[in-house]
Amino acid sequence: MTQKQIPIPEKLQKMATRVVTKETKTGQEISEEHLSLINLHTRRDFTKEELYTFPVILCDNEIDRDHERFPIETLKKFIPLFLGRTGIMDHQWKAGNQNARLYHVEVIKESGQKNSLEEDYAYLKGYAYMVITESNKDLIAEIDAGIKKEVSIGFSISEAKCSICGNSIWDYEECPHIPGREYTEKGSKSLCYVDLLEPKDAYEWSFVAVPAQPGAGVVKKAYDEKQKHIGKNKEETKKYLPVMEGGLKLFNLKEFIVNAKEKELEKVEVSVKDLEDIQEHVNVIELAKETEEGKVKGLEDKVKELEPKAEMGSQYVDDLKKECLRLGALVDKNFNADVMEKVYDKCDVEELKTFKEQFEKQVDELFPPSTQTTNSQTKSTDADTTDAGAYKVSK
After folding, report:
1. 207: buried, middle or exposed (CB in 10 Å: 19+, 13-18, 0-12)?
2. 253 φψ region: left (φ > 0), alpha (ψ -120 to 50), beta (else)
3. Tens of pLDDT, residues 12-55
4. What is the per-residue pLDDT across 189-199, written as a single tens digit (0 to 9) for each?
5. For labelling, which of 115, 128, 306, 351 has a CA lying 20 to 30 Å from the CA of 275?
6. Which CA distances in Å does 34 have to 141, 170, 290?
């Protein structure tokens, strides 16, 4: 079947949060191989003593709280995209916010460890370096202390495939499924999630305060200490799906409740951030409602103010039409009042005024005004020679 071209967002920034590992190194602990990789990104060659390095788990192939995941093919395609990318804080794209840079990226596949889909667990691991300075010594201390450990990546993709039907999750005609819901397929229930495919670009990676993935935490060496949510059996994973759901918003609150009831759960956990997001949506709706009510009230007041004027205007138009009919009958004995009334009904005020003015001119020509007084003795207009007593009122 030919796939339709589905428009996608210009940039899909995903908070694929993972952790900073404990493999931080300074000085002589940095190998010559790693030092040479770092110096590929610098304008001059730095010594080991000037540098501080640490690895980060950027993302993996586990289903996250947004019910999205990166298949291992996507992780591999991320390698060249994230190489050399800068590390910042909270996805704030500012030059002064740059703190570190990735000098090496690789995919680690754990053959003895399975994700919730019973696939070999795999993750994208990056190695970052920083130049040791007075300005970043506090950040280095926080990384060493485990205060700064969660990281998130910003990137864009070309395709997001539904796990149920295989169509684009953005194609609402071909894909009716909702990520996070369970659907019965061939007698068994399957969780709907989204495979993020064909990455287009990697923008940055950031230290963040709130993890997007539930298992984010401090790990040792090559991620030997498994995350708690990885490797759970399917029944246990399903049981806690509503608890693990992230991205709860006002628009999907009903789905969240239905999902929890279907699993017969009396309680679910919702993050403070999700509650804040819901409250923000409620505030926007209330503000819009208040604004709309204010607009309606203002319009109602305006209508009340204009109603008398509208009535006056309507009366004025009616008077103009009647006057045109009256004058037309005066100047033309064949004047058809019924026909002309229909004509006047289609005229605006200016057109009616024009008709009225033309009729008035014709009336003046046909019935010129006469003087109220007449001179019975003389027709002289000379005021000095006319006898005022010669005038009398005409009857």
Report:
1. buried
2. alpha
3. 444 334 444 445 555 448 889 999 999 999 999 999 999 999 99
4. 999 999 999 99
5. 115
6. 22, 42, 60
The C-alpha R_g of the chain, in whole angstroms, comes to 42
Beta-carbon contacts of residue 19 (< 8 Å; ≥ 6 apart): 56, 57, 149, 150, 151, 216, 217, 218, 219
- Give yes or no for a contact between 242 and 256, defined as CB atoms under 8 angstroms apart: yes
Contacts of residue 313, defined as CB under 8 A and 6 or more positions apart, other chains included, come to: none
- Whole-number pLDDT of residue 272: 74
Interatomic CA distance for residues 175 and 387, integer angstroms:
107
Which residue type does 128 have? A
Beta-carbon count within 10 A of 8 CB = 15
Determine the Cα–Cα distance for residues 101 and 106; give it in Å rounded to an integer.
Answer: 15
Q: Give pLDDT, residue 45.
A: 94
Tokens of 6: 């589905």
Handedness of CA 114, 120, 121, 127 (dihedral sign): positive
- In this structure, what are the phi and psi dihedrals at residue 205, rounded to the nearest 5 degrees? -130, 145
Structure tokens belonging to residue 55: 């690895």
Please answer whether residues 169 and 196 qualify as being in contact, where contact means their C-beta atoms are separated by less than 8 angstroms: no
Confidence tier at 122 by pLDDT (50, 70, 90): very high
**pLDDT of res. 236:** 39
Q: How many residues does the chain have?
A: 395
**Two structure tokens written together for 311:** 């009535």
Q: How many CB atoms lie within 10 A of CB 305?
A: 9
Beta pairing partners, 125: 57, 106
Beta bridge mates, 55: 127
